[in-house]
Structures are given as C-alpha cells and as structure tokens.
C-alpha cells in the first residue's frame, strides 16, 4: 500500500528549495506536485513560499503568476479554510514589484484579482 503524501510535505519541499537558493527547482517541484499520485496538490503554504521567495531571486513575474493562479484555485486547495496567501508573502511581492517598477504592469492587475477573489492583502 503506497503512502499518501500530504500538502504539508509539498510545502516543506518548496520551502527548502527556496531556502537553499534553488528557485528554479522550487518552481519545478511545485508544478510536479500537481501530478503526484495520492496527493491533493499544493496548499496555501506552498503558494505562499513561492510568492514570497521567488522575488528575492529575480522571479517577480513568476511570483505574480503563481499568486494569480492561487486566486483562481484557492477554494479547491487541500485544507481550504478561506485562508489567503500569507500577508508577509504578498507584502514581499508588492515590495519587489515596486523596486522593479512593475506595479502598474503587474501589481495593479494582481491587486484586482485578489480583491475579486475576496482575499485580503496589504500592497504597501
């Protein structure tokens, strides 16, 4: 009987990749997790780890895409309890967007998606 992986394991793997300065690996694992057998998929913690970690390595655009995907899919995530992305993750992302002068191009549309999904955030 195969053991079941849970979302916490996936989030830990993604977080470990970010911690070890391997953002490309974190993104690859995140995508791979979606097809793991006996696994419900990434949870809010995996999304938050990427959204906060990727901008530190120059991947703000990818972090925005992941945050946007979260807006579309969060009600279907494992352990869904109306919990949004970690506030610190979004703060770090919006800070990176400001420093890279991408607020108008990426930040404003993301803020609209977050609001439409009913997710609280602080874009300061």
Automatic annotation (TrEMBL):
InterPro entries: TPR-like_helical_dom_sf. It comes from the Eukaryota. This is Pentacotripeptide-repeat region of PRORP domain-containing protein. It comes from Zooxanthella nutricula.
């Amino acid at each position: 009987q195969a053991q079941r992986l849970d979302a916490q394991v996936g989030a830990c793997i993604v977080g470990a990749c970010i911690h070890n300065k391997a953002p490309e690996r974190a993104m690859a694992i995140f995508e791979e997790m979606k097809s793991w057998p006996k696994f419900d998929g990434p949870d809010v913690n995996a999304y938050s780890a990427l959204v906060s970690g990727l901008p530190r390595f120059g991947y703000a655009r990818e972090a925005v895409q992941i945050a946007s995907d979260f807006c579309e899919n969060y009600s279907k995530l494992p352990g869904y309890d109306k919990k949004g992305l970690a506030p610190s993750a979004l703060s770090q992302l919006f800070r990176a967007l400001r420093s890279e002068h991408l607020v108008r191009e990426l930040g404003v549309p993301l803020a609209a998606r977050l609001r439409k999904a009913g997710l609280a955030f602080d874009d300061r």
